[in-house]
Structures are given as structure tokens and as C-alpha cells.
Amino acid sequence: MALKRKEIETMATEIRVPTLGESVTEATIAQWFKKPGDAVNADEPLVELETDKVTVEVPAPVSGKLDSIDVKEGETVEVGTLLGSIAAGAAAVPAAAAAPAAKAVPAAAAETVEVLVPTAGESVTEAEVGEWSVKVGDVVKADDILVELETDKAAQEVPSPVAGTVVEIAQATGATVEPGNLLCKIAKGEGAVVSAAAPAVAAPAASAPSLSGISMPAAPSAAKMMAEKGLSADQVAGSGKRGQVLKGDVLAAVAAGVSAAPAASPAPVAIRAASAPTDEVREERVRMTKLRQTIARRLKDAQNSAAMLTTYNEVDMKPIMDLRKQYKDIFEKKHGVKLGFMGFFTKAITHALKEIPAVNAEIDGTDIIYKNYAHIGVAVGTPKGLVVPVVRDADQMSIAEIEKEIGNLGRKGRDGKLSMADMQGGTFTVSNGGVYGSLMSSPILNSPQSGILGMHKIQERPVAINGQVEIRPMMYLALSYDHRIVDGKEAVTFLVRVKESLEDPQRLILDL
């Protein structure tokens, strides 16, 4: 009986390699953040895994003490492999334990659970605290939304891990936080005593090197550009994994006026003229969200770095519309999804990318990286801004599979549920301004991609068909491309191939 009691007391929770995404079956142990014997909190990152597509941080499933590490750094593991274990019953000491309590909670009070900033994904090292859905003293249920965090790529809702009472809010709205920072505390159970302390406001954090001071050498293309511009590594803030400086960071630094000259004066900043007093009272100043700031920066970077050019064509949509009309009911009954235009366009694009691979490539320094796969990004407008979720391996999917995936990503985008994995790794982008009534526009590249196709409104126009004037549903298409890698002939050929596939859908079936 004593042995059984001992076994229960030393019971450990296993840490295993999580599912890493479609077609990803193995990963490499990049770095352990803890060592055996260290105290850990639930959801605190323990180890970083690297795959051929993304980097994933594995959080602690429970609070306790890291009991063992079964796989060393540098080793390759498969999904489900045991990484280590956490000893139960050895709860991690809260970071605030050493600080004097505002008013001691009675010993009989319920257990207090800390809610920490979750890991947001590769290259995301900070977030901004949005509006709190609760206040101190509120009773919450498990999975109730506590607060929304905004990163430079997406918004993320933080749910309550337990049912109980909010006893402390540690971060004010607008504060900048990092993964692992304390957000709030919840006393488990309905009868929890609320601390009389006022809601804490996050103290300004001292500047620290990204990701605990772990640095990586700049990417080759970034190092080359820094050398050309005469910049040093400490002049450029890295946004890559473990603080790595990427090419985009150098471009952003140059655009911001960072100069090699020690005494160089800062670049002139456009100063807004003051509004007239009669106008000022009717104005509203709203701070840009991190997502909107990132959209603005990335679009401007694309214009600054790429030799962007746009070519246009038009497509007769009658064949596709006739096909949809004939088969839409049968299609929906069999596949459970409506037959839209995006499935046809995405399929036509993947066929054209096989013939013109430069449109599916990207530039890295002096190298061209050709992608032997097609991850098609679909630009989606959300209440918080433009996001581009990715349909992975679209070239290997049927039209029905594409429609299902686009519908799923669209719903997640509208609900604010898109993850970082949903928006990474695209090789080509489609933007459909036609849903808003746009007749013609020139889309901006989604850097570092070399091509983006703009779809527009379908409008009936008179066209010449076999010597006769007919009214046809026509759509203008616009292909913006990076002229550094895609020649005009290739761009025009690509757009013509898309047009031919849409005007003669049998070509998609026959792979012509």
C-alpha cells in the first residue's frame, strides 16, 4: 500500500511532440528553455521544435517541476514522441511570491491560478493588451474570455483556464506584454476571497534582448544588405526567430532613417499641421492596432524593395457561371459546400504556376528560391484589417477540397480564430476586390512573394464573339509581379493561362 501511495505522489505528466500540421511528421529539438529540477507554470514554454515549415514552442501542460528530459537538443523526433515529464505536486513558485501581499487572503481561501500570456507563434515576441472582458471580483467559468491580445499579425482571445473569481488584473489595457508575463489571477471556486488591492498596472519593463538574450546571426541576405548600407547589427531590430535580423528588418531600418554615419541627423518626419479649432472638436484620434501598423509597414516595404509592375487581362466568366449553374446543387449535396468562383481560380492559378515557376518563387539576397509546391494565400478583409490565410498544397487538392478549406479559413478570419500557422508560408496570393464592387485595381505584392492576382467585379459588357456583338459577364484580372525575377513575357503568359483555364474549364480536367 505504501508503494502505491508513493507512486501516486510521484506521478508525472508526460510532455510529447504535438501534431505539427498537415504533412509534417518530424521535428528537430532546437532548444530547451528549462532543465530538470526547474519549476514551471502551466502554459510556460518548455522546448522549441523546428520543422521544415515552422518553429513551434511546446508549453507545459501543468504546473510543477520538470522531472526529466528524454530527448536532447539537435535530435530529430516524430509526432507523439516523449520529450520529458513534469512531476505532479511540485507547483512552481509564482513570480510575485516574494512581493508583499496587499491584503493576505485567508489560508482557507481557494487556490489561486495565474493566467499568463500564451505563446503566439514564430517571430511573435510581444503583444498589446486589449479590452478586458472582466474586472476584479467578477465570477468566471472555465473557457470564458478574459481579455484579447493583439500582436502584429493577429488578435488572440485568452480564455479562463478554471472557474472561479478574478482576484487580480496585472496588466492594464494598452500595455505591451511578452509570452509568459502574468495577465491576471483567478481564485478557483465560487467562494474565493477577492484581494482589496487595486488592479495592478504593468510597470514599464526594462529593455531586454529578444527571447532571453539568445541571439542568432543575421540572415545572409540581411547581412549582405547591412554591409552595403554600412549598418551594424545593433542598429537593426530583428523580428526573426530568436531575434534574427531578416532582410525586411534592414529595409524597415533604412526606411526609418537609420544611417551608418554616427552623427547623421534623423530622417525628416512629416509633421501633421494643426487642425482649426472648429475642426478639432469634430476629430477623433484612435491609435493604430499592431495588426494595422504591420499591414502598413509590410505594404510599404513591398513597394520599396520590389520592382513591382502590373499586367491586366479580362476573362469571360460565362463558361464558369454556366458550369456552376448546372452542377451547384449536386456539388453542394455531395461535398457539403457551395461551388464558388475561388475554387476555379485557385485551380487555374496552380496550373499556371507549374508552367511559369518564377511567379511562384522568391528572391533571397542573390539567390532565387523556386517552390515546388503551391501554398495559395487568400486575402480576407476582417473587422481588424487585412489578413492572408493560406491554402496549403492547393496544387494537390480538388476544387471541392479547395472550396472547403477557403470556407473554413474565411470563417476563422471573421471570428478572429486564425492561428499563426494558418497565415504562414504562402507562395502566391489572390485578392478578390470584386466582392466589394471593385471594377479595376492594382494589388500590392505580399512580400516576399513575387506575384499576386487581383480579381474584380463581374460586369456584363458587349464583346465581339465570332464576329457578333454579345453581352457577356466579364471580369478584369490584374497580376502584380516582381520584375526583378519575373519577366514581362512570363507575367503575360501566366495571366493568359489563367484566362484560358477559366474560359475553357475542361483544360483544368485535362491538365492543359
UniProtKB/TrEMBL annotation:
Keywords, alphabetical: Acyltransferase, Lipoyl, Transferase, Tricarboxylic acid cycle
Pathway it works in: Amino-acid degradation; L-lysine degradation via saccharopine pathway; glutaryl-CoA from L-lysine: step 6/6
Domain Lipoyl-binding residue range list: 12-87, 112-187
Protein's UniProt keywords contain Repeat: no
Record EC number: 2.3.1.61
Gene Ontology cellular component annotations, sorted alphabetically: cytosol; oxoglutarate dehydrogenase complex
Cited function: E2 component of the 2-oxoglutarate dehydrogenase (OGDH) complex which catalyzes the second step in the conversion of 2-oxoglutarate to succinyl-CoA and CO(2).
Full protein name: Dihydrolipoyllysine-residue succinyltransferase component of 2-oxoglutarate dehydrogenase complex
Source organism: Pseudovibrio axinellae
Lineage summary: Bacteria, Pseudomonadati, Pseudomonadota, Alphaproteobacteria, Hyphomicrobiales
Gene: sucB
